[in-house]
Amino acid sequence: MAPVRNARVVFNSVPTGYPEPGKTVVYDDSKTIDIENVPLNGGLLIKTLVLSIDPYLRGRMRAPEVKSYSPPFTIGEPLASHGVGVVIRSELADVKPGDHVYGVFSHEEYNVRKSSEGLKVLKNEHNLPWSVYVGAAGMAGKTAYMAWKEFSRAKKGETAFVTTGGGPVGSLVIQLAKLDGLKVIASAGSEEKVKFMKEIGADVAFNYKTTNTAEVLEKEGPIDVYWDNVGGQTLDDALQAANVYARFIECGMISGYNTGQKPIHNAMLIVGKSLSINGFIIGRLEHKYNDEFYATIPAKLASGELKFTEEVTTGLDKVGDVILAVQKGQNKAKAVIKVADE
Amino acid sequence: MAPVRNARVVFNSVPTGYPEPGKTVVYDDSKTIDIENVPLNGGLLIKTLVLSIDPYLRGRMRAPEVKSYSPPFTIGEPLASHGVGVVIRSELADVKPGDHVYGVFSHEEYNVRKSSEGLKVLKNEHNLPWSVYVGAAGMAGKTAYMAWKEFSRAKKGETAFVTTGGGPVGSLVIQLAKLDGLKVIASAGSEEKVKFMKEIGADVAFNYKTTNTAEVLEKEGPIDVYWDNVGGQTLDDALQAANVYARFIECGMISGYNTGQKPIHNAMLIVGKSLSINGFIIGRLEHKYNDEFYATIPAKLASGELKFTEEVTTGLDKVGDVILAVQKGQNKAKAVIKVADE
């Protein structure tokens, strides 16, 4: 068989504000790969099926001298994000052709990897679409589940405030909080997301673009648990509305990723209210909760006990557009790129 | 016996910046008390011996409509702070004349109290001066000991950064951190305090007024535990210098008590570094650690195993001056007002 196209998405330049499709990242279809003959050197060849587009990717689009929790992307090299692929060839004992694997994938149609390190073979007993394994049953779902377990110390009758409640992380947090018996206040940036948040059980759901967050919290709080995906003014509002002993789960601060983080003015309330504020990166919780996550969450997603939404866009060439949409909050649900059918 | 003077210190007006002696608080010696005949109504009469002057008192000098963790002082009424007194008369079964008691005292030479609620009878087996029971063996010492136990998760070989390390709380934190095997970086606002911090074991001690905090932390960090008594720019510097998984103990933010809190710019690092930030009010930890504190700390203070300093000023009329000195960091050690001899 002749070599086939192996298109990829390359990190082209560090953005100063929002990432620009075609400038920040560039789709490149000039490469090819000889699927049957490419040397594996003891490794494996994977065909990429789906890729996850997440808010945190903006943080990797930076100059290499800026330190952060995740390594910067390299100019001229492909992006990388969580994905699911199918194994085409394997010289490894623990992975065989036809297996579906989850892990961090290079943004290429085909990947040669030296080992199975960082890859999880998905059994998919519940017959979920593969896209779900990069969303509610993947990194996004783990983020919600593991940090809620680790940090919320939720007690029945308490009140939680969840930001980006229409997204893949926030929507699962809303449902976990309701299962724990909390009153849930949830915010998002569109009427469609507000409607979805109500459907999945939020007691109070509002559009932060048209409703004043501080006023909602003043009326519906105080809050005992705050799930922060946005930072900035909303974090200040949550500090103001916090109950004594409240727990803040700091998952992300997307309000500042592209336009600079707004300063926080209410930090003194951390002392006055005996607050507990925990930041986290999901990779640091996975060793503790991975088994229980896969044992429980995919089944609940398949049965409908836990609800999720996703917005699947077909084509590796759409990565740049979808990255921008996610940074602007214009995606309607968990953003997934479908790269190929099986 | 004729009535005797019962001088007091009255809260006179809400300060806008630093508290002003004679304006914010006023010494009033017009009152008298008939020690032998004042009706106790089943309670007790206490003669005030020492009173503690602490940074947090500034927070109680506010308009009553401003909410905070401690109630505001009432205009026209005496101040209150931790103190030790000797019981003169008692109609209670659990407290007898001659007992020394610790608790929150009204700023008066003599106090009639309805009950012994909130008072602890001090046995003083180690023969410490009573002033120590409002400092290293009192609220300040408890603050250091209990929060370090509760939140530091200190491991040998880690690095701690302690602010206001020359003060009663910070100096004990430095010593507890050294006992736990940490490298200790400590800051204070005078050369005298820097010298003291070195004497009690700080590995790196500096005067933040003449040395750049960020540069010290860049060189000597990263830091695993941050003891924050100051907030503002120093908190931002600590966020910048924090190691992953660092624990921040938020005890106070005196840099903003009189001039307004400076905003915090590095909050996003809470996420990126998986930080754990805990605010606290000592009253919320006492039930858990009070017995072990009194069983261990006074003995170590008496033996010299733990070192402390204090600056005792004689005279209830000096309260206003000492409050201002503490807010400005001009006190040389734990500030105590000696009201009377036994």
From TrEMBL, chains A, B:
Span of the secretion signal?
none
- This chain is encoded by the gene named RED1
Q: What is this protein called?
A: NADP-dependent oxidoreductase RED1
Name the species this protein comes from: Hypsizygus marmoreus
Q: Which UniProt keywords apply?
A: Oxidoreductase
GO molecular function: any one? Answer: oxidoreductase activity, acting on the CH-CH group of donors, NAD or NADP as acceptor
Entry-linked Pfam families:
ADH_N_2, ADH_zinc_N
Q: Matching SUPFAM superfamilies, A to Z?
A: GroES-like, NAD(P)-binding Rossmann-fold domains
UniProt domain Enoyl reductase (ER): residue ranges:
43-337
